[in-house]
Design a protein that fits this description.
Blueprint: H1 2-11, H2 16-22, H3 26-32, E1 55-56, E2 61-64, E3 70-75, E4 78-84, H4 87-100, E5 105-109, H5 115-118, H6 121-124, E6 130-134, H7 137-146, H8 148-159, H9 163-171, E7 181-183, E8 186-191, E9 194-200, E10 209-213, E11 218-222, H10 243-255, E12 260-263, E13 269-270, H11 272-298, H12 303-309, H13 325-337, H14 356-363, H15 366-378, H16 382-395, H17 400-415, H18 420-438
Parallel strand pairs: 4-5, 5-6, 6-7, 11-12
Antiparallel strand pairs: 1-2, 2-3, 3-4, 8-9, 9-10, 10-11, 12-13
Helix pairs in contact: 8-9, 10-11, 11-13, 12-13, 14-16, 15-16, 15-17, 16-17, 17-18
Bound molecules: zinc ion (ZN).
Length: 444
């Protein structure tokens, strides 16, 4: 997918110079963005780690690449930083970008309050630096802080990070960001003859903003554009991300007619035509999934049916290496109406699996069900295989055969996905099973 971006840069005649100035070769651009073989999933934690020089976008704009990019915009009167990446990447970005310009940092603009954008604010902030955010930013940060332990636990599981370290990072005073300028719809300023227009563009978060620099026809769009279908719902947990907000915000950016679109994840999209093509398709794909979900809801379909049924038509398919359509369908469905599914059993606190142990006992025990699980997985339905293994484990939590059947199902699912987050959560599941297998598994 990032190959397309690189190719856009290459194809644009007048921007051909870009590439040679960015990195030594196309391969290194791809490697730096963490591009992988077609049958592999992206490891988000490694993106940009081989970058040795800041990416030069044009004569004034430079990019540090990471899971969370940092942008530097130079002016004769000092610099502007857009986003600051995550805590573990921010220092590397600062080193790369200060090699380009060590002039004073006049403004830091944060496209939203996620930690992979605010992790380096303390490194860039100097005496007199203004920090610009949309007005909802502090409220959004307060929501994340309120659930800091929940998110730390999930992020640690998702990326196989150390949970204690993540918890202490999220509570560190360095993580506190206090904006000095907030705005509702729009904030304009000028620095060294360059005009900056900052717009409210809610999408991935309610506080999301985009930065427009008319002089360079450059739009910094934060997380509202990915090189994949977006995460309208993300597995680590999120309050609803409104599909129609993305659509309206992408329209706002398209209206500006940018020559550069600079997402905070991934590489720049360069040139009017590739930008219109990419953003239009992106917008239409989100609208399509939203409309199909709403139609299904009104037709009386349940959420799981729609997760299976709603598929993007070929002309809107943009890959699902980051977000997944199925998760987004559920995100839209439950974002609109919450969790109750008209089944009276769902009203009560007993989990949907409450009778699994009884059923496994009636079936003849965990061993029998584990064998069925393995057979089902081998026949190509690893999702059902996983459910059967979980049922067996509900009856006997350390049953070796059931643990092995579960591991086999998780492995089969991991082999078949290119989605980085799905891959990561399957890995989390596998580590848990492995831990139990390494302990005292019983039975066969
Ligand atoms: Zn982000």
């Amino acid at each position: 997918m990032s190959r397309n971006w690189t190719m856009n840069i290459i194809r644009r005649g007048k921007h051909v110079w870009l590439l040679s100035m960015l990195f030594c070769s196309q391969t290194s651009v791809a490697q730096n963005f963490g591009q992988v073989a077609p049958n592999q999933a992206i490891d988000f934690t490694r993106i940009g780690q081989n970058q040795t020089e800041a990416l030069k976008v044009n004569e004034a704009i430079y990019q540090g690449i990471g899971f969370g990019n940092t942008f530097l915009i130079t002016t004769p009167d000092g610099n502007v930083i857009v986003d600051t990446s995550s805590p573990n990447v921010a220092q590397r970005h600062r080193e790369l970008l200060t090699k380009v310009s060590a002039a004073p940092v006049r403004y830091i603009i944060l496209t939203h309050g996620h930690g992979d954008h605010t992790g380096g604010v303390h490194l860039w902030k100097q005496e007199g630096t203004q920090i610009i955010t949309q007005r909802i930013f502090p409220e959004f940060r307060a929501y994340q802080d309120r659930l800091a332990m929940f998110f730390a636990r999930n992020n640690a599981a998702q990326f196989n990070f150390d949970e204690a370290r993540l918890k202490s990072l999220s509570q560190s005073p360095q993580n506190t960001v206090t904006p000095t300028i907030v705005f509702d719809d729009r904030y304009d300023f000028e620095l060294g003859g360059t005009r900056f227009e900052v717009f409210h563009t809610p999408g991935e978060t309610p506080d999301a903003l985009s930065v427009w620099v008319p002089k360079y026809k450059a739009a910094f769009v934060g997380d509202n554009v990915y090189d994949s279908f977006p995460n309208i719902y993300t597995l680590r947990g999120t309050s609803p991300r409104w599909a129609l907000d993305y659509v309206a915000s992408i329209n706002k950016v398209l209206k500006l007619q940018p020559e550069f679109v600079l997402p905070s994840h991934g590489l720049p999209i360069v040139g009017h035509d590739p930008i219109v093509k990419r953003l239009t398709k992106y917008r239409d794909a989100i609208q399509y999934v939203h409309d199909a979900t709403v139609k299904g809801m009104n037709d009386g379909k349940d959420v799981f049916t729609l997760m299976r049924e709603v598929k993007l038509p070929a002309e809107l398919d943009m890959g699902e290496t980051y977000g997944k359509v199925a998760w987004s369908v559920r995100g839209i469905y439950e974002g609109y109406v919450g969790w109750f599914d008209r089944n009276p059993a769902t009203m009560y606190s007993a989990s949907p699996n409450v009778a699994d142990a009884d059923l496994v006992e009636l079936a003849g025990g965990a061993g029998v069900v584990a064998a069925k699980s393995r057979a089902v997985t081998q026949a190509g339905d690893a999702i059902r295989g996983l459910r059967l293994a979980d049922a067996a484990l509900a009856r006997e939590p350390t049953h070796r055969g059931a643990l092995e059947a579960k591991l086999a199902a998780l492995q089969a699912l991991q082999k078949s996905t290119r989605n980085g987050l799905e891959h990561a959560w399957l890995g989390y599941g596998m580590r848990g099973v492995q831990k139990l297998l390494d302990g005292a598994g019983t039975g066969d």
